[in-house]
Please model this.
Amino acid sequence: MVTSTTSTTATPTPTATPTPSATSVIQSATQALLTSLNTGSGIDTSTLVPALVNAQFATKTATLKAKADTLTAQISGIGTIKSAITGFSTALANLVKSGSLQTQPSSSNTTILSATALPGAKLSTLAASVTVTRLATAQVARTTTAVADRTADLGTGALTLTIGGGTPVSIAVGNGSIDSIASAINAAKTGVTASVVTDANGGAYLSVKGGTGDAQAFTLKGATGDAVDIGGGATKTSLVSTAQNAQLTVDGIAVERPSNTVSDLVDGVKLQLNAVSTVPVTLGSTPPTDALTQAVNDVVDTYNQVLAAITAQTDPITGNLRSDPAATSLLRSFKALSSKALVGGAVSGIPRTLSEIGVATSTDGTLRVDAVLLAKQIAANPDTIESMFAPSGTNALGLSATLTALTTGATSTLTGLGASALRYTAAQSVVTDQQDKVTDQSAQMNTRLTQQYASMNSRVSAYKSTQTFLAGQIAQWNKSDS
Model:
């Protein structure tokens, strides 16, 4: 199921908070100064100074805040769109990889023979009859005499391993013990493996195994002793099984394969041979009708969610990204998805686009599914519709590849939303620096004015003291004259 939940509510474009004009703030502060002087209570610098500082920087502060809020909303909008389109692409890719949208081969007897589809296979016409007459086996040999001391040198000297008619491989055996010999064979990484098996009495035996198929038969020879020799009349080892090809008949034709896993016999199918059969096993196919129907509906639902997210962010009036070229370009490309050819070729009557299999576009730009037409097309052209949902590696035009390309373009740091995000982030850094500068200037002005008004307040207080003294003297003089 393709699901990608996104938010479709547009974030309103930030606007500056109304602030008092610089003139009105200064007038208010001046009136406070005059009032304090007239009443003789001194200057209230704790109120006056912040008011004057605010008046000086109010307009610039509001402008910078509006810019910062807009950039934050734009960066958030880019994150919303990138998350939506990436989620859509990833969900579809995972669905495609699961194989549930591909016609699967069926076997009439999986105990004898099981089958799986190869990537990109078209199996709607699969029909074959297979009889397994022999399974592929590997050569397995073992030593016939138990070794009591697993550290004792068996006296074989260096070993020479030859697989089929290949080039002999020399294997150094270390201290020559049974454990060392097994380790040396495994370390050679030739496809022949060895293990040491201990019986109920504690005796140790060397077991050596090759790959399946006639060509994997091997011989093993010691340079100075025959304790672990295999093949060529060896007497101290015995064969548990021989290397043989699998034998089977496909539609009456006898064939052999070196493995019980066969991918080159029936087109588009990997066969797993499990047992010998006495009667033919029938291979057929089961189209994923329900899975394809569900996938188309899921794609439409998720498309509409993503479309709503992009549309909200690019709305010409309220969209945070209404002027962003990458966002608007993505919207145009996304809207064209239903009409894009998802398979190659142009054959009359064969659908190539989502719209031709029943995905219709509504007047508001959203998609809807014509269930009747979709069912008809799946029944008539299952391989074609499967190709639309094929992995990117098998259909470069398919829906999965198309969404991946859209996502890559959208997140590109050169031309896509990634580039826009870098641009907005850089602008945001500049605004932050400007805000810091205004904060520093405000602090400096606050300090300067506080010092100036404190000095003035001291002088005014002195003047008032003199005024009080003189008023007292005048009063005394007047009293003396009377």
